[in-house]
Amino acid sequence: MRVFVAGATGAIGRYLVPALVAAGHEVTGSTRTESGLALLRAQGADGVRLDVFDAGAVKQAVAAAAPDAIIHQLTALSGGSPADNGRIRRVGTRNLVDAALQAAVPRIVAQSIAWAYEPGDGPATESTPLDEGAPEPRATTIAGVTALERAVADLDRHVILRYGLFYGPGTWYRPDGPAADVLRGRTDDPASVFLSGLVANDAVSSFVHVQDAARATVAALDWPAGPVNVVDDEPAPAREWLPVLAAAAGVPAPAPASGRLGWQRGAGNALARSRGWAPLHPTWRTGFGSGG
């Protein structure tokens, strides 16, 4: 099928676009830079330089691509802030959905997150409500996520992928990445604004390798509508995973602590597994240091 990937040159896009091409899809990817266009061409895809906040340009790009499906991977995580990311989820998503509706695109697969669920005990499932009563600063993130998920639901055939925390090449949680730099005491990377809470406590997170996230995204083109958690097999507290990341990065492990916020509960992947997806990297324990 013809697939339009919005935000095609980020950490996941670098795996996703080649995977789509290898699966026989015709891919058009959007990017903000000339270097991104060159990367897309090298991967066997067409590229379009696009400002997602320009509604008219988005409509024109989608109409020109005439896709059978849109994959939404837009974020503002590279050099942005939580407020910037919230804006792209609200405004960028709305522009993309309006373009899809105008061009009669029948399906959309959209990036969401697996840590937006309300407080509770044990890993969240897709039936767990989102944390819409959260106070600031978390409220900014949740508002962006809920706006995104409600907007893409305007298309009947919509799949919302609630990804875990990405690790692997090009991500924050790689051994030479921003999370490791925070453990080293460096805070000059713009990503550090998102990583200020790295404490080895009881806060549970779910991770997913970007390669596994890309594989799930390709598969999701054929999945039924609705949200799906895309996470590995082992939600874990920071007092367990942070020392493993520290060891992979060659930095001292932070001192263990206690306590967690109610929403720091992780998420389960039973639904994604029931649809045939299984992570090649089933746990961060071996994945953090794999280098792949």
Descriptive notes:
With 292 residues, this protein is an alpha/beta fold. It has a single domain (2-167, 207-232, 267-280), classed as 3-Layer(aba) Sandwich (Rossmann fold), CATH 3.40.50. It has helices at 13-22, 34-42, 55-65, 82-102, 138-152, 178-183, 210-220, 238-249, 270-274, 284-287; strands at residues 2-6, 26-31, 46-49, 69-72, 107-113, 157-163, 165-167, 204-205, 207-209, 226-230, 236-237. Strand 1, helix 1 and strand 2 form a beta-alpha-beta unit. The longest helix is centred in the first third of the chain and has 21 residues, at 82-102. 47% of the residues are buried. The model has no long low-confidence stretch (mean pLDDT 94).
List the helices and strands and how they pair.
Layout: E1 2-6, H1 13-22, E2 26-31, H2 34-42, E3 46-49, H3 55-65, E4 69-72, H4 82-102, E5 107-113, H5 138-152, E6 157-163, E7 165-167, H6 178-183, E8 204-205, E9 207-209, H7 210-220, E10 226-230, E11 236-237, H8 238-249, H9 270-274, H10 284-287
Parallel strand pairs: 1-2, 1-4, 2-3, 4-5, 5-6, 6-10, 7-9
Antiparallel strand pairs: 8-11
Helix pairs in contact: 1-7, 3-4, 4-5
User: How many strand segments?
Assistant: 11
Number of helices: 10
CATH-wise, what's the superfamily? NAD(P)-binding Rossmann-like Domain
Task: Give me the side-by-side strand order of the main sheet.
Answer: 3-2-1-4-5-6-10
Query: Can you tell me the number of structural domains?
Result: 1
Q: Roughly how much helix do the residues carry, as a percent range?
A: 25-40%
Q: If you average the pLDDT, what whole number results?
A: 94
SSE sequence, one letter per element: EHEHEHEHEHEEHEEHEEHHH
- The CATH architecture can be named as 3-Layer(aba) Sandwich
User: End-to-end span in angstroms?
Assistant: 28 Å
CATH class: Alpha Beta
Low confidence ranges: none
Rough shape? Answer: globular
* Main β sheet profile: 7 strands, parallel
Query: What is the strand content?
Result: 15-25%
Radius of gyration: 18 Å
Classify the secondary structure makeup into a structural class: alpha/beta
CATH topology: Rossmann fold
